[in-house]
Design a protein that fits this description.
By secondary structure, this protein is α/β, with parallel strands linked by helices. It has 8 helices and 10 strands. It has one domain: Rossmann fold, CATH 3.40.50. The structure holds adenosine-5'-triphosphate (ATP) and magnesium ion.
């Protein structure tokens, strides 16, 4: 049993690129504990979205293992994996994936629909939208919103189930400077709430704010954790995994759905 929120071991992902098989992730290992905020950086095409999708149980690795709150999501059948994902993961997609024909508040409450929507759910969605500065747009159709407004609605949706693991793929990509600073400080707060947060970004407006974060670089299919003090990349896979494995005090790994 482990107190880690996620434990990623030797993950390899190969994809078919036309006729060629390409290795996008080539033996990635790391783990995140409650309260951890991790930032993954890397050039376009380096595999950040692929890694986040695997960690968030959206996608399975070609080999290797992912454990989410102790459950081996990489080995579960899709229906079971989807259930674990829905209960434990909040995901902000790089392309947002809002449903245009639904209102902002309907988009935010979507993760609650399988359990049957309650008035409390709608009130929570409204509150999340307000905290992100788009409360007045709750009844607007998603298709009528600006890029920055859509991004904040998608962030509210990722928070709807109060997830143990929050995965944010380029969360400031569509924001102007003022909104990016705003969203960056919200993300910083979200990390302090007993969950793990995994963020991919190229955006210095975001990374400069996340002073408490662990920084990882993805290049050539390998993930390296940057040593915050030394300021350069350590050859990180195993070390990154070790860094949290000694800490068994940070919560109950067996706790189930809220
Ligand atoms: N299902 C797939 N089929 C074929 N190729 C894929 C698939 N998924 C990802 N790839 C390829 O894997 C590589 C990594 O893609 P990914 O989207 O993870 O990169 P990224 O680091 O998120 O890039 P960006 O910064 O542009 O978002 C790319 O070359 C992409 O074309
Ligand atoms: Mg991406």
């Amino acid at each position: 049993m482990s107190a880690d929120v996620v434990e990623v071991t030797s993950v390899v992902k190969r994809v078919l690129d036309g006729r060629e098989r390409r290795t996008v992730l080539d033996g990635v290992s790391f783990s995140l504990a409650r309260g951890d905020m991790a930032v993954v950086r890397g050039p376009s095409g380096s595999g950040k979205t692929t890694l986040l999708a695997i960690v968030g149980a959206m996608l399975t690795p070609t080999s290797g293992e992912v454990r989410l709150d102790g459950e081996p999501t990489s080995r579960l059948r899709e229906a079971h994996r989807a259930e674990v994902r829905r209960r434990k993961v909040g995901f902000l997609f790089q392309d947002l994936q809002l449903i245009d024909a639904m209102t902002a508040v309907e988009n935010v409450t979507l993760p609650r629909v399988p359990d049957g929507l309650t008035h409390a759910d709608v009130a929570r969605a409204q509150e999340l939208l307000e905290r992100l500065g788009v409360g007045a747009l709750a009844s607007s159709l998603a298709k009528a919103l600006s890029g920055g407004e859509r991004q904040r609605v998608a962030l509210a949706r990722a928070m709807m189930n109060d997830p143990l693991l929050l995965v944010l793929d380029e969360p400031t990509a569509h924001l102007d400077d003022e909104r990016a600073a705003d969203v960056a400080s919200r993300i910083e707060e979200l990390g302090g709430e007993g969950r793990a947060v995994l963020v991919s970004t190229h955006d210095p407006r975001l990374t400069s704010r996340l002073s408490a974060a662990r920084f990882f670089e993805l290049a050539g299919g390998r993930l390296h954790e940057r040593d915050a003090k030394a300021g350069d990349a350590t050859s990180g896979d195993a070390k990154a995994a070790d860094a949290t494995s000694g800490d068994a005090t940070s919560g109950d790994a067996t706790s189930g759905a809220p």
